[in-house]
Amino acid sequence: MKTSSARNRSRRRQFPGADAPEDLSGDLPAEPLPPEPQDEDEIRPGADAPVVLIPVGKIDESLFEAIRPVVEETFRRSTAMHKPLPVPKYAYNPTRGQYHSAAILKRVETLRDSRWDAAIGLVDVDLFVPEVPFIFGEADRSTRSAIISLTRLKPESGTAEARRELLVKRLIAEAIHQIGLIRGLAQCPNNRCVMFYSATIQDTDKKGASFCANCRKRLASES
Ligand SMILES: [Zn+2]
User: Which residues, at least 6 apart from 27, have a Cβ–Cβ distance to it below 8 Å?
Assistant: First the structure.
């Protein structure tokens, strides 16, 4: 599970009138001063801000319904559904036969609203970043956004019921991992902790969806 939380998204902002000649026409400004622009790295959503779940392409709605209560309980946040985004054809890389994660994450980030706690996109295409064969998901802490791919979470054998149960279990682990990253947690060296970095689906199955004691403590202090 790749995270790009260290990405520096600081941008220079042009203050209105910053380079204008000094106005000496009166003691009081004719209009109120413009509000201080909000630094994108310092979004502080309120305690009632929801985690917003966004289908990217056609995604089985019942999967969202399965993960929402767990996300709500784990992070003590409400969740909300966003209307689906189009299938991310723009991110397809024909050489790799995969979809560029950063391009899709960027689309999710453009929806971001300061009243949201986090924006989590769910896609059913195989994601990559240039340096690794594939990724399960990607988070960006500065924009409080993440995407998760279902493609490699799908079990290949077992009954339909068993496959679905395992898919939901993996999806919950992935969602908690990505939201944990957004909430300020780091990858954890404990392979039984949900914040452990999954390089393979076996890693995901082994670690499960619970935090280790250290990560739970950190989460409590970050929240
Ligand atoms: Zn941990």
Answer: none
**Distance from the alpha carbon of residue 94 to the mean position of ligand 1, in angstroms:** 37
pLDDT tens per residue across span 66-79: 999 999 999 999 99
Residue 180 falls inside a structural domain: yes
Q: Is residue 30 part of a domain?
A: no
144 belongs to a structural domain? yes
The CA 145 to ligand 1 mean position distance, Å, reads 21
Q: What is the pLDDT of residues 21-57, one digit of tens each?
A: 444 444 444 455 555 444 545 556 777 899 999 999 9
> The CATH number of the domain where 118 resides is what?
3.40.390.10
User: How many A from CA of 48 to the centre of ligand 1?
Assistant: 26
Instruction: Give residue 185 CA to ligand 1 midpoint distance, Å.
Output: 9
Tally of structural domains, the chain? 1
Is 149 domain-assigned? yes
CA of 50 to the centre of ligand 1 (A): 24
pTM score: 0.79
Domain that holds residue 86: 45-185
Cα–Cα distance, 40 to 73 (Å, whole number) = 27
- Cα dist. 213→194, 216, 219, 220 in Å? 11, 5, 10, 11
pLDDT tier, 64 (very low <50, low <70, confident <90, very high otherwise): very high
